[in-house]
Amino acid sequence: MISRFYNNENISIQSLKYKLRLLLFSLLIYSCSEIEELDIPSDIDNSSESNDIKTVKNILSDGGFDISRFYVGTALNTNQLNTNIEKLFLDEFNYSTPENSAKQSIVHPEPGIWNWDRIESFLDFAEKNNIYVRIHGPIGPQSSKWAKNDSRTDDELLINMEEYMSSLSQKINNNSSVKWMDVVNETITTSGEWFTDKPGDDKWENPWTKIGLNQDGIPIYIERAFEIADSLAPNVSLVYNQHGAMEKVMWDKVKETINYLRNKGYRVDGLGWQAHLKDWKVLSLNREKLDFLSDLIDWTHSKGMEFHITEIDYAIDEVPPTDHSLYRQANGYANILKVLISKRNNGVITYNTWGIVDKIDHLGRDQNKFLFDKNLNPKPVINYLRETLTTQNTELVILE
Question: What's the predicted TM-score (pTM) here?
Fold first, then answer.
């Protein structure tokens, strides 16, 4: 279960010492049945400053991966451009998502209002630096207060949605940096029902379902969004993105909906899973759930579609996080990547983290979700991801 650390004749003494000590630590974890009682070493150096340690993009290009079929990157916010975070990103990755900058709530929040500044600045950045881009501009819950207002009619919502999706599709279609677009997002609840609207305008809801269902019981907004994107963005791969965990009833309905759309003649090129992980809800450290994910990827590739991890992060409910939690986080991220590596010969794979540097989120939570800490220092997780890619190790580390 424990990853093997790769050998390199040119590796520095400092890096070698780090890897040997981390191996000893991993063996200690593995040999103890009560992991919670371990005295985890506090002096392990998690830095990755040695010049001989390759970054993710270099490992992919030099390590035998087909870089036209296997992508690893992270989301960036436009306010992180022209900062040290941008430099950190450019050193490590060449694939990114402009976080929420392309969503309806930003671009076309209400009739007559358009704001392209954020997405245009990101596309300029991507073209300048040869970055592959996923446009995360789906029709889904993150919509404007105007759209969520209870007085909105189905006609008003449909017009706004069609205007937004048409303009976005046309804008990105001939941009050489853009490879994918998430067309819809969070369409189905974890209990297998259509995600719909709620009273008021301050809740997490999906107002677009109010537009209605077609004669086959499919939300009109889903069918119409793919119809528009298929027509106006033929150069972009179109992704059906979904939240949740490994709930069978939810994924069964997602599969049914994708099959329906494709049978109707609409292009659905990929299936995406957000993969928002939480340390207190074990998923990526559980074999049964990882097996379910493996089967989901197999289903996707069997349909000739791409599989995308679109927003992976791993929340820790401790401030500051303990070494124990950081170890679990690192393996939680790495296990998902290992499953993807095992599928890399079957179809296109992407792995996108929902951030690169820890921060206080929009709800005021300090959950240390990402790859580098708030001072831009590397956390164990980034070293685990690099090492997993380098060794192409697919042995899972199971920690219940």
Answer: 0.88
Q: Report d(CA 142, CA 127) in Å as an integer.
A: 27
Count of CA atoms in the C-beta half-sphere (13 A) of 266? 22
Query: Quick check: helix, strand or coil at residue 227?
Result: helix
For the segment 339-356, what is each residue's pLDDT rounded down to a tens digit?
999 999 999 999 999 999
Closest CA to 78 of 63, 91, 89, 62: 89
- Whether the Cβ atoms of residue 238 and residue 181 lie closer than 8 Å to each other: yes
Q: Which CATH number fits domain 44-391: 3.20.20.80, 1.10.230.10, 1.10.10.10, 2.60.40.10?
A: 3.20.20.80
Q: Enter the tokens of residue 310.
A: 């679109």
pLDDT digits (tens, 9 = 90+) for 110-164: 999 999 999 999 999 999 999 999 999 899 999 999 999 999 999 999 999 999 9
Q: Which of 102, 4, 6, 56 is nearest to 350 (CA)?
A: 56
The CA distance from 19 to 188, in Å, is 43
Identity (one letter) of the amino acid at 167?
S
DSSP for 43-97, written as a single string: --------TTSPPHHHHHHHTT--TTTEEEEEE--GGGTTSHHHHHHHHH-SEEE
Distances (CA, A) of 153 to 139, 174, 223, 260: 17, 33, 19, 26
Residue 316 identity: I
* Per-position DSSP letters for 120-189, written without gaps between them: HHHHHHHHHHT-EEEEEEEESSS--HHHH-TT--HHHHHHHHHHHHHHHHHHHHT-TTEEEEEEEE--B-
Domain boundary assignment for the chain: 44-391
Distances 301 to 209, 298, 307, 319 between C-alpha atoms, Å: 29, 5, 7, 40
Tokens of 176: 């050489």
Residues 6 or more apart from 15 whose CB is under 8 A from it?
Answer: 50, 52, 53
Please give the Cα distance from 287 to 399 (Å, whole number). 9
